[in-house]
Known about the structure:
It is found in: Cytoplasm. This protein is of the alpha+beta class. It is built from four helices and seven strands.
Amino acid sequence: MVDEQKQELQDEEIGTEQQEAATPAGDDPAARIAELEEQLAAAQDQALRAVADAQNSRRRAEQEIAKAHKFALERFSMDLLAVVDSLERGLELSSNEDPAIQPMREGMELTLKLFTDTLARHQVVAVNPEGEPFNPELHQAMAMEASDKVEPNTVLKVFQKGYTLNERLLRPAMVVVSKAGSGQTGGTIDEQA
Length: 193
């Protein structure tokens, strides 16, 4: 029993020494609490920043995927526009009066309608600005022509239609733009435009 009491006393002394070593003399428990609270606040701030960064990364990835889906058809659509242009030119140059080519012309019209409907279903929309004000974001001016009949900077003629895909420009419309007339009614094309 005496040995047990001696052992308990030694254990108490060792415990007291360890506590004194853990808390240096003169260290205030309130200061230690304040230091630990600062460390906790810093750790919480880091955790919040990490969560916000992860959410931002996920949102950016989702936006990039949505954009890739939305504009995946861009190159394919550009290739199809040449076919549409060819069909339109063929219809412009063929005579509606000639009975020999009437069936071919009707077939070209139906094919063109099928193409344009298919493109429209995939949000490829034609930009045909004849008579509208010139818009440099959608139109490319190929020439200027003096005209007293319309306001300056109005599209007089469309050489080639433009197209947009999901409201983003695929190809600008190539146009002739009016400029202030010089008393002439017909006007001439200014090749230096």
